[in-house]
Design a protein that fits this description.
The chain is α+β, with helices and mostly antiparallel strands and 435 residues long. The chain has five helices and 28 strands. It has helices at residues 9-21, 94-98, 316-321, 344-350, 371-433, and strands at 30-31, 33-38, 40-41, 44-45, 48-57, 67-75, 79-84, 103-108, 111-112, 117-118, 123-128, 131-136, 148-153, 162-169, 172-177, 183-188, 198-199, 205-207, 216-218, 250-256, 261-268, 271-276, 281-286, 292-294, 326-328, 339-341, 355-357, 363-365. The strands form nine sheets. Strands 5, 6, 8, 9 and 10 form a five-stranded antiparallel beta sheet that branches. The N and C termini lie far apart (188 Å).
Length: 435
Amino acid sequence: MMHRTRVAFLVGVAALVTSWEARAGSGAARRVIPYEATLEENGLPISATVPMVFSLYADSADQAPLWEESAVVDIQAGRFAVLLGNDATNALPDDVFSAPDLQLGLEINGTPLAGRQQLLPALLATHAAGSLDMTVKGGLTVQGAEPSVTLAQEASAGDGAQTFRLLASESGFFVEDITGGNRRPLQIRPGAPTSSLVVSASGRVGVGHPDPQQLLHVQGVDGATQLRVDELSGTTTSRSLLALRNNGGVKMSLEDSSTGSTWTVGLENGNLRMVRGILGVTAFNLEGSGNLTIGGTLTQNSDARLKEDLAVVERPLQRLASIRGWTYRRVDQPGEPRQMGLLAQEVERAFPEAVRVGPDGTRAVAYTSLVAPLVEAAHALDTRLTTTEQQTAQCQARLRTDAERIAALENALAERDARLKRLEEQVARLAARQP
C-alpha cells in the first residue's frame, strides 16, 4: 500500500471541532491531536476499514515512541480522520506537547510506512466529552499541492449538515462550498493588491481603500477605476440593475476633483433634478407630470452634414391654417392648472413628421419640428407682402399720375373760369354804355 499525506492538521481540527461541538455531554477535559490524511494505492484513493498504529516520537531520530495507539480506521474515498489521545485509558502524556520536533509514525495493516511526519508542537487541543478546543501558539502553516482547511458541521436537530473548505492553489485562495456542489463564492487571485477588500471596525467596506469613509468606499490609483454591473441571463427583458432608496430625497454627487466643479443629480419632492455647483442652481427639473424646466438654452444637432433627402416644406400657410391653438386641462393630471398647446391628431394630419406614436398609441408632438413650417410660412408671407408692396407702389404711382392730371384739369378750368369772368365783365360794361 502506498500512503501520501495531503492535508495537514488544521483541516482535521476544523472538521472535528464542528463535529464535537455539535454533541451534548460532559466529562473530564483532556488534550488530543486531531489528524486527517489521505491514503492512496497505486495512485488511486482507497476505501476500506484497516487496522492502524499511530506512534508519536520526540524527534525524527528517536527510537522509542512517547506514545502509541492502535485503532481500526474507516477510510472513505481515500480520506480518514482520527483524534489521537481520544481514548481516556491511553491519554497523551505532557511531553508529547513539549517536544520541539514532534513526529508521527504510521503502521497500516501491519506494515510500517517509511518516514515520519512532523507535527506542530504549538498545536494544542483540549477535549471534553462534548467539546474540542484548540489553541495554536505562534504561526501555523498548512502545506501541500493544494493545502486546505475543511469546516464540517454535522446534521443536528433542525440543521442540516454543511461543509466548507478553505483552499489555496496556484490559482488563488478560495472559500469552497462543498455541500453546495463545490461552488467558490469567495476567490482571491494571486497578486491582489494591498487593501483590495477592507472591513473597518464600524462595518464600512473598502475596495482598494485601507480606511473606508462610507459604507462602501471604492478607490483606485491606476486610472482604470470603474464600477460595472453585468446581467448575463440569456432571457432578453428589461431589468433594474441599480436601485437607490431613501426615506426622503435621493441624491448622487458628481465632482471633478481637478477643478472642483460639482453636479448633484437626485430625486427631490417627486422631481428629477440636476443641480450645478455648491450654490444649488437648478439646471434641469423634470416633474412627475412630465413638465420639464431647464435653466439654459436647449440646443439640438441640425448640421446639414447629418441630413439627406432634403425637401422644402410645401404649402406651409394652408397646412398651418388647419391647426388650432388650444387651452385645456390634462385628464391624467387632476388639479393642475390649464395648459396651452396643440392636439397631436391635428398636427399629424398636417405635419406627420412632427408626431411620434408611443407603444400604447399615445401621440406626442415634437414642437421644435414645427419651426420649419413656421419659417416657410414666414417666407410665404414675406413673398406675399413683397408682392402687395409692389402692387401698392404701382397703385400709388397711378394715383400720383391721376392727381397730376386732375390738377392740370383743375388749372385749365380755373383759367377758363377766369376768361369767362373777364368776358362777362366786358359785356356788362358794353351794356352800360348803350342808351
